Structures are given as structure tokens and as C-alpha cells.
Amino acid sequence: MRFQLFALLAMVPLAIAQGVTDKVAPEGDAPAGCQPNADGRFEITVVPLAGKAKRDSLFANRATCSGGGTVVVQLADGVLTDDQGRTGYIASNFQFQFDDPPQSGALYTGGFSVCTNGSLALGSSATFWQCASGTFYNLYDRWSAAQCSPVDILVLPCGSGGENGNGQDATQTVVGTRIITTTLVVPLGDGQPQVITTTTLANSKHTPRPARQPTAPPSPKSPTAKCK
Fold first, then answer.
1. What's the predicted TM-score (pTM) here?
2. DSSP string of 10-65, one letter each residue
3. Spatial separation of the C-alpha atoms in residues 103 and 199, rounded to whole Å
């Protein structure tokens, strides 16, 4: 009897270390227009709900998603996975993070969707929360402290076709540059993505009009005979 009890206690740490492998999704349907599958890979960024600005068209599609310093993910059947094969999930402390497998006690390991307006949703809600932690923010699925504010997580698809290696359409020419402030979600080794703000020099583009084709001169009018 004593041996059996010892054996059961020895198995408890092993079970905890194994993590969560089942797909656990929140109750409720996804918001209208949101789908549990997305084509290809994408990066994510955040936009505060207060005074929310439109996503800049220059960042709507990436020429490539190298994953260097940014989180690159895929969505299939409501499950997020990053380029390292880790699952995106909501941990027991309500934090959005990536692990393989998700840590024991994970609240949600599935139920994500991408909406037609470009935002990421979890269950029936498309609102997440960023909470300040020093010089960066952590992401949560709910309010958890006074330093938290609501945000949208936006999807930035990795573009292809029609763009060259610099992320510019081959039919467009650069006419100037401007500084754009953008928010990036960067990966950490421990699987906890952090939100940071950075500035980028972006090219302003112009699509030349097609050359006007020469037109033939109008035909001369035939003289009209006068009646006598």
C-alpha cells in the first residue's frame, strides 16, 4: 500500500511537466465574419482600441516573413502555431504565449479565428489586453491590472507575387520616404511574446500612368455641294 502511494505521488510531477495536448476552446461562436483557418503565414501587431487608427497599407502585406525579431504564425482549425512549432494559447495567468506543448493549466489552446477586418479573435471576442511591464507590454485575453488597456491584434499576411524582395510592387517607383511608428509583437525564448514600439523608414510609392497612345488626326470633311 505504501509503495502504491509513493508511485502515485511520483507520477504527479511527470503529469504536470507533460503540459496540455488537447485543444481547449472558449465557449461561444466566433464573431461574424471570422474564420478558424487562414491561408499562409502572417505576423501580428496590436492597435489600441482608444483612438484606433486604420492599418497602414504599407504594412498590410509583408514581402517575406523571416521571423527575425517578429512572431510569425499560422492558423488552422482554430489553433495558432509559430515557426518554431509552438502552440499559441492562453496560460493559467490569462497571458497569451507560445509553448510546445502548452503549459499545464492552460485555459485555451484553440478557438482562435481571423476576421474580415484583419483582426484576431478568441472565442466570441476580438478584444485583447496589453499590460505594461517596464519598457514593453505583455498580451492577455482579459483585463488583469490597472496598467492594462484594450487592443486589437491585427494580422499582417506574408505577401507574395507582384512584389520584389524589398516589399515593393515591381510596377511602382519610390518617390520619397517617411517615418512610420509601428507596434511589433516579438518572440522570446520562454514563449512569452512582447509588444514593443519601433520606427521604420517606409517608401512612398507611385504607379506611373501608362503612356498615351498617339491618335490619328481626324479625317477632313468632304465639301458639301450647294443647291442653285
1. 0.67
2. HHHHHHHHH---S----SSPPPTTEES--SS-EEEEEEESTTPPPPPGGGSSBS--
3. 34
Query: By the 8 A CB rule, do 142 and 150 touch?
Result: no
Q: How far is CA 115 from the centre of its chain?
A: 11
β-pair type (128-133, 112-115)? unpaired
> Cell match 512610420: residue?
180
Using CA atoms, how far apart are residues 26 and 18, in angstroms rounded to an integer?
22
Rounded Cα gap, residues 137 and 140, in angstroms: 10
Please work out, in degrees rounded to the nearest 5, the angle formed at the alpha carbon of residue 107 by the alpha carbons of 105 and 112: 140
- Give pLDDT tens digits along the chain (228 positions): 454 544 444 444 444 446 889 999 999 999 999 999 999 999 988 888 865 554 544 345 555 676 667 889 999 999 999 999 999 999 999 999 999 999 999 999 999 999 999 999 999 999 999 999 888 899 999 998 999 999 999 999 987 544 444 444 444 444 443 433 456 676 656 567 777 665 443 444 545 555 555 556 666 666 665 655
The three cell numbers of residue 87 are 502552440
Phi, psi (rounded to 5 degrees) for 207 = -100, 115
**Whole-angstrom distance, CA of residue 23 vs CA of residue 77:** 10
Closest listed residue to residue 95, CA positions, set 130, 70, 52, 61: 130
What is the domain partition of the chain in residue ranges? 30-206
Hey, is 105 helix, strand or coil? Answer: coil
